[in-house]
Amino acid sequence: MERESVFLALRSGDIFTVRVGMQDDSEAPELVGTVDSGIMACAWSPDEELLALVTGEARLLLMTQDFDVVDEFPLAQGQQGEEAPVALGWGKRETQYHGKAGKAAALETSDPVQSQIANARMDDGEDDGQTRVSWRGDGAYVAVSFIAQNGAREMRVFSREGRLHSIAEPIEALKHTLSWQPSGRLIAATEKLDHRHDVVFFERNGLRHGEFTLRKQTRHVLDLAWNADSSVLAVTALVDTGGAELEVCVELWADRNYHWYLKQELRASAMPGGSLLRAVWDAEDPMRLHVAGSRAYISVRLHAAPDVAHVASEQSNAAAVVVDGAQLLYTPFRWANVPPPMALHTIDVEMPIAHVAFASFGHGNGFAVLLADRRTVVLYECGAEALQGNCPVESGRVSLGADIVTHQIAWPRRDALVCLGLGTQHEAGDQQVVTAVDLGNLSGSSSSSHVLDGSTRVIRLVAAERSNSPSPLLLLAAADGLVLEATVDEVGAIDVMPLTQLPAGCVEVDAAVIESETEPDTVIVVGRTERNQLFANGNLLSSVCSSFYLRRDFLVLTTTTHFVRFVPVDADLLTVTVSEEEDETLRYDETRRRVERGSAIVLASPLGDSVVFQMPRGNIETVRPRALVLAAVRRALDARKYREALINCRVNRIDMNIIFDHAADSLMADWEEFVAQINDPDLLNLFISGLRNEDVTLSMYAGPKARTVGVARPAGVEQKTTNICRAIRPVLQATGDSRFMPTVLTTFMCETPADIPAALQMLAPLSTDERDSALTYLLFLSHVDTVYKAALGLYDLPLALLVAQRSQRDPREYLAELGGLNALTSEEYRRFKIDAQLGRAELAVEHLCAAYMEACESSREQELWAEFTEYVDAQEMHRNAIRLLSGHRRFGDACVLLGEHQASKREWSQAAASFLLGGAHTLAVDAFVQAKEWRAALAVASEPGVGSAQTVHDTAVRASAVLAEHHLFLDAATVLLDYTERDEDAVALLVRGAHWAEAVRSSLLRQRSDLVETTVRPGLLEAHSVLLEDIREISTTFTAKLERLREVRATPLEVLAATGQPGEADDSLDNIDVMSDTTSMASQFSTFSATITNASSRMTGSTARRLSKKSRRKEERRKVRGKKGSIYEEAYLVDSLAKLIDRIRVHQSAVRDMNWALIKCSWLKAAAELQGLFAGLVEVVLECAVFVFDEQRMQMRLDANGVAEPVPLEVNEQGLASQPKHPKPVLPTFAWKIDAICE
């Protein structure tokens, strides 16, 4: 109650409240009321807001905390209640046959309640006749069991508002006990029949819902009580334990997989003080049971832990046992996977079992059983025949001393048994005692004890295997996290000393020993708390661990996030933390695996590769996780057990590349042993066919330490498969066993690339039957068409015919084809036809050339030469032809053939060389001219016997025209001046190329001063005007964009980001471009300079229509960025100014050359105008360069939603992150300026 008082109700009807914590005896208990008819039973609701009270007049009162009556009504109400069963019309009484009674019996009516009472069995003396009241866990309903007026017991359910909800289905012998499951699903009661005693269950609507039978030794049930989470039912009963009188016992029953197990029996004789009166569950801790006796009180803390084998032995049965009263359900999971409540073997004992401990010595197949009297231990061991899964047999019994009540046992050695219990004969009162019993004396009289410190309360006794010693670790885990180690010497003396301190008390404890050659061995104690925290000594491994199992190599644990994890057992276990986040860098993570929600580990095979899980509903599932399978494979490979490793890979679908990659160098030298162990062609074929040029120990199976490696190493291994095939093939062939012929063929087919011709050659020495079988297997490995082509490539027509007969091809096709090849008389020509058909051009050219040489001086020479040239042209095998015909009279023809091919591809320089090599000088001259190599062309043309003077003149004219087309005006003019008399054309070309000094020099050298006046000076004036116009246009554009840049930078970025969207720009700026149409030329050459500019030419007219869709979108985006008011405008302006500066820098040489020419012509005013205009432009550029490029602000862009955001940072050469900025271009200088010109 919330008033800090104790409620006391007397059968006489008085109700008292007693204040808790009264300081003196002056305050007597307060009488709050009296029920005149007496009180038969009462119970507070779970929320302590209502009190259900049954009076002596069989009425139910519902009262508040202030004892105000809410409702009052009689228990025996006549109606059925709100949840009365509803008949659906099937099997109505009126439609049934009633025998002699006839139809009148069908029309009889009766009160259903009275009929239930009448059918109920009268009390047989087992019922105490008392009324029982039990609330549902949420307080919405209350159940009342009482004796009706006719003497039969009834159970009724009432709602919180006082309405009758249901009447329980009548059963033959319902007894007085009653307990409603807190979860609300079932109401427990008991039924005593002649042949058995059952605990029966009812639903809220009163219908019966299952039962289980108590042990035959149970004589009378006193009480039923559910724990807080409805998982355990405590049955307090009088039990026949073999003594003179019945003994009070508390039986703890739990259900799993639709079966009720008797997990513990607490006897009064095994309690301190030797008595047991009442057992009550704790209201907050569902697994704590309070037991009170006449002279003592104890608190029992329960915890469910699997009893399984732990010894890592090759002969271990990996067994688990389940306690079910006086039966032990034994299943060796190495041999059978039997789900509970079934088992492979059932072992019966004379009384319920209290604790089971597996042996920690030998193979770990034996176990010790502590019985419920806490005085008897039964030993079971497996003989040699038990290794096949037979039932263990009893090997002895131990009677423990009467002065210790034993709760847990451990069997660390064959000759010693260790017990943990409460001693009752010590002066300090009841204390925990650790006892070592010498099994040489089964009476238990020869033992030694160690009394534990009263401040240390040990809750767990565990024997953990020690791999480097036959004596295991004996661990005593205390409630405060302290872990003690108990040692038993050779004479049986026991000693206890502290081992480690865990951060919290653990209900499950195990330990592992980490061996070291240089340092002392490290003992790691692993413990799990009730709050799912998993510790390794002081390190918190996981805070979501629901169960774990410790092997020598792995700590296997399940998490509340429904994963099973595998942590290597090594020194890192003291520092590592099991992360719940999946590592995205690992494509294959063998340390984690998903499991069903609520799965718990039963056991992990100590040396095997399986893990047994128990699902929430109770069934058993065995899985073979990758981590354990790979560990088993690696152990087998280290021990050179190749067959075991390979079969393990095949069964568990592990990539067999690990067999080689795990220890590549070792296996490369051990192929003989590998083949001898496997000795199975199918397994060898499976291994070889699965090879890849990849090291799987670096990719798929990097091991449990892959997370700590860091950057992944490349897993590719060049020529791995080919090297293995070539290494194992001689070993297979050396055996001389014909069974391995398919494996030998597999080695050829698995090379990279597959060596099918070599595989076909292996068929030649075989007999007909063996050849047919080998060919069938070869066609299984490769497509029949591929094998057919390989057979043809061997030029073995009978073999090709044999392969073709096994294909789906039309015989009319391949017979005609093979017949035509066989009819050819020339072997070289036949091979040419085969190679040409198979697309092997190099071999085909060789064989065709050989066939041509055989046919020289014969009638077929011209025919074969024509076919040779045609094939060489078609396959572009000209170089091969030149190599094959070296020294032959047809060598020149082959060179000319190559030259013509090169000329068709416009490779003029290469074609000219080929023509020269073949002696075709005229063709060589033409090729040199097209290659713009005019000096070589005229050199060849001028050779004696090649051409006349007119030919040389014509060649020079053609060369000049080609050079002029490519804007090589200086070379074009030089050719005309050196080899012709066309001086006017030469000077005109120099003027077009802006070579003013050379034009004047050549005119005067030829004594043609008139050309200066007629050609040079007019051209100079025209170029001067064009250059001035271009400089003015650049200056105007530069000034406009510079001023606009100043305006943009004067506007804050926030304003631009808020209002400067691309769509809001002024459309009048759409046609503005950096370049002008006046000087934009497709050739990127100006009329006054032969220097290639860096400026991009503007595409207009039909050229723009040839832009691709992608280019048009790019141009549109570029135009949008340049619009006024856009957030991109500043970057656009800076980029435009940089391009203009590049054009100004290019114009420097053109201005210098033109000023020299103007001075030569005495046009000082024009020169001064040009130099002054250009110098002013350069000064403006140099003055504003700092403002334009060094004061750039943060660049902005629009995200996917159209919102302005900063451009992401970039990492520069110094490794520093910064905003991307336009680089400063190379600035112009004044080195071009002529000081003598006065501006």
TrEMBL record:
Signal peptide: none
Domain ELP1 three-helical bundle: 1010-1180
ELP1 TPR domain sequence ranges: 829-1001
Location of the ELP1 alpha-solenoid domain: 626-818
Residue stretches making up the ELP1 N-terminal second beta-propeller domain: 322-602
Gene3D superfamilies to which the protein is assigned, alphabetical: YVTN repeat-like/Quinoprotein amine dehydrogenase
Residue ranges of coiled coil: none
Compartmental location: Cytoplasm; Nucleus
Spans annotated as Disordered: 1099-1121
Keyword Cytoplasm: yes
All copies of domain ELP1 first N-terminal beta-propeller, residue ranges: 2-282
Record's keyword terms, sorted: Cytoplasm, Nucleus, tRNA processing
Repeat recorded as keyword: no
Pfam family, one: HB_ELP1
GO molecular function: tRNA binding
Functional pathway: tRNA modification; 5-methoxycarbonylmethyl-2-thiouridine-tRNA biosynthesis
Single GO cellular component term: elongator holoenzyme complex
Described function: Component of the elongator complex which is required for multiple tRNA modifications, including mcm5U (5-methoxycarbonylmethyl uridine), mcm5s2U (5-methoxycarbonylmethyl-2-thiouridine), and ncm5U (5-carbamoylmethyl uridine). The elongator complex catalyzes formation of carboxymethyluridine in the wobble base at position 34 in tRNAs.
Classification via PANTHER family: ELONGATOR COMPLEX PROTEIN 1 (PTHR12747)
Protein family membership: Belongs to the ELP1/IKA1 family.
Protein name, UniProt field: Elongator complex protein 1
Organism: Coemansia aciculifera
